[in-house]
Specification:
The chain is α/β, with parallel strands linked by helices. Helix content is 41%, strand content 16%. The strands form 4 sheets. A 7-stranded mixed β-sheet has the order 2-8-7-6-5-3-4, sandwiched between helices. A 4-stranded antiparallel β-sheet has the order 11-12-15-14, covered by helices on one side. Helix 5 links the parallel strand 3 and strand 4. Bound molecules: pyridoxal-5'-phosphate (PLP).
C-alpha cells in the first residue's frame, strides 16, 4: 500500500503542518472522495429519496440503493436489504436492545469490556423490565477459552451481545466460535463491530451472526452514520425504535402496516448525504484493499509497540503481540493521568490521541484504573509518525513521570 498516495486524498494532510492524527478509533478522517460524494448530493440532486417520484428524488433513491449494496458487500452480507442505516452504532445497538421486547427474567450475556452503548441499554432494561445479565471475561474469549461463556449459557440466555474488537486494547474475540456455541444453546448473537468493520474483511453471512452493529464514521464515512445488519427473520422480529413516515405501507386512523426490512427501521427523512458518503467510504477502502490496510496497521503498530516497550515505567494494555491489537496501542505512564499524557502529547508534538475510560467505565473502575492513553491508527498513518509519537512519549516519560 502506498501511504503517500493515500495521504494525498485526505484534506487534513494538505495543510502546511498537519497534526499526527492517532484517534481513528473514535472517528476516522475522510478522503476527498467521500466529501465529493456528499457534495454531489447537495449540489446535483439535493432531494428526498424513497418518496417523491420526480427525477431528483429518483436519483437519490438509486444512489441510496447502490450505497446499501456496496456496504452489504463490504461486510459480506448477501442481501442488501438486511443492512439498516442508523445514525450510529449506539442507535443500532439500542434498536435491538429495545426492540427485542425482552421479558422479565430473560438473560443477556455480554463481556466485561463492553462500550457503554452495549452496556447502558441492558442496565436500564434490567431496572425497568427485570431482564438479567451474565458477564464473561473478554480476555478469556480472546484467548479462545469458551468455558466461561458455556457456563453462562447453561443458565439460559435469549441473547449474547458482545463486542467483536474492544476499543480499549484492540483485541478481538473468535466470533464464529461464539456464534456456534450460542446457537447450540438456543441464543441469538449480536456483535458490536465498531472496531472490527474498519479494520478487517468481514464475512457476516459465513460467520452466521444474527445481528451486527457498527459505525461508518470510524471507517472513512461521514459523521453521524451507523449501520445494523441482521438476518431477515431476526430483523422481522424486532420492533423499530422510531416509527413514522417512510417506514409504513399504509395507515388508517387506528392501524399502521409496517414496510418490510430495511425501510421499517428507517422512519423519517434520512441522512441522504451521509448514506451516499458511506457508500463512497467503503468503495475507497475496497479500492485500497483491506488486506493491505490490515498489513499496514500491523506494521505500524509493531513499530510503535517496539518503541514504547523500551520506555521504563510504561505499560501497554492488552496482548503483548501487536498483531493481536489491530490498529490500537493503549498505554499508561507510571504515576501520570492519561488526560495529562494526551494534552502534553498534543502540546509538544501535535500528536492527537484519546485518553480516559473510552466509554468502558466498569472495566477500568473494577481494576482501580483512571483509564489509559490510546493511540489508534489507520491506513493514512506513516512510519515516520510512529517514530515521532514514540519519541514524544519517551520525552514525556523522562520529564514528567513520577
Ligand atoms: C466498541 C464500540 N462500540 C460502540 C461505539 C459507539 O459508536 P457510535 O459512536 O457509532 O455510536 C464505539 C465508539 O467509539 C466503540 O468503539
Amino acid at each position: 500500500m502506498d501511504v503517500n498516495r493515500v495521504r494525498k486524498d485526505f484534506p487534513l494532510y494538505q495543510q502546511a503542518s498537519p497534526p499526527i492524527y492517532l484517534d481513528s478509533a473514535c472517528q476516522s478522517l475522510r478522503p476527498r472522495q467521500v466529501i465529493e460524494a456528499m457534495d454531489e448530493y447537495y449540489c446535483a440532486f439535493p432531494a428526498c429519496g424513497g418518496r417523491s417520484v420526480h427525477r431528483l428524488a429518483t436519483e437519490v433513491s438509486v444512489r441510496m440503493d447502490r450505497a446499501r449494496e456496496e456496504i452489504a458487500a463490504f461486510v459480506g452480507a448477501r442481501d442488501p436489504e438486511c443492512v439498516v442505516f442508523t445514525k450510529s452504532a449506539t442507535e443500532s445497538l439500542n434498536t435491538v436492545a429495545k426492540g427485542l421486547r425482552l421479558r422479565k427474567g430473560e438473560r443477556v450475556i455480554t463481556t466485561d469490556m463492553e462500550h457503554n452503548s452495549n452496556h447502558v441499554p441492558w442496565v436500564l432494561l434490567a431496572r425497568e423490565r427485570g431482564i438479567r445479565r451474565g458477564i464473561v471475561p473478554f480476555s478469556a474469549l480472546e484467548q479462545g477459552d469458551l468455558e466461561p461463556l458455556k457456563e453462562e449459557l447453561e443458565k439460559g440466555a435469549r441473547l449474547v451481545s458482545v463486542v467483536h474488537t474492544n476499543n480499549v486494547d484492540g483485541s478481538t474475540i473468535p466470533l464464529e466460535a461464539v456464534v456456534e456455541l450460542a446457537h447450540d444453546r438456543g441464543a441469538l448473537v449480536m456483535a458490536d463491530g465498531c472496531q472490527t468493520a474498519p479494520h478487517s474483511s468481514l464475512a457476516l453471512d459465513r460467520t452466521d451472526v444474527d445481528l451486527y452493529a457498527w459505525s461508518m464514521h470510524k471507517m472513512l464515512g461521514p459523521s453521524g452514520m451507523g449501520a445494523l445488519y441482521g438476518k431477515r427473520e431476526v430483523l422481522e422480529g424486532i420492533e423499530p425504535l422510531v416509527t413514522g413516515g417512510g417506514a409504513v405501507a399504509i395507515t388508517s386512523y387506528d392501524s399502521a402496516e409496517l414496510l418490510p426490512v430495511p425501510e421499517r427501521f428507517e422512519a423519517g427523512l434520512q441522512n441522504f448525504a451521509g448514506i451516499i458518503g458511506s457508500g463512497a467510504a467503503v468503495r475507497y477502502l475496497r479500492e485500497v484493499g483491506m488486506e493491505e490496510i490490515v498489513e499496514h496497521e500491523h506494521r505500524l503498530n509493531a513499530l510503535a509497540t517496539e518503541g514504547l516497550s523500551a520506555i521504563e515505567g510504561l505499560s501497554i494494555l492488552g496482548p503483548p503481540d501487536p498483531r493481536r491489537r489491530g490498529g490500537i496501542l493503549s498505554f499508561n505512564l507510571r504515576g501520570m493521568l492519561p488526560h495529562d499524557v494526551a494534552m502534553i502529547l498534543d502540546e509538544i508534538a501535535s500528536v492527537l490521541i484519546r485518553s480516559g475510560m473510552h466509554c468502558v467505565h466498569p472495566y477500568f473502575a473494577a481494576r482501580g484504573m483512571e483509564g489509559c492513553a490510546r493511540a489508534s491508527l489507520y491506513l493514512y498513518n506513516t512510519e515516520e509518525e510512529m517514530r515521532q509519537f514514540v519519541e514524544a512519549v519517551g520525552y514525556i516519560a523522562e520529564r514528567f513521570m513520577g
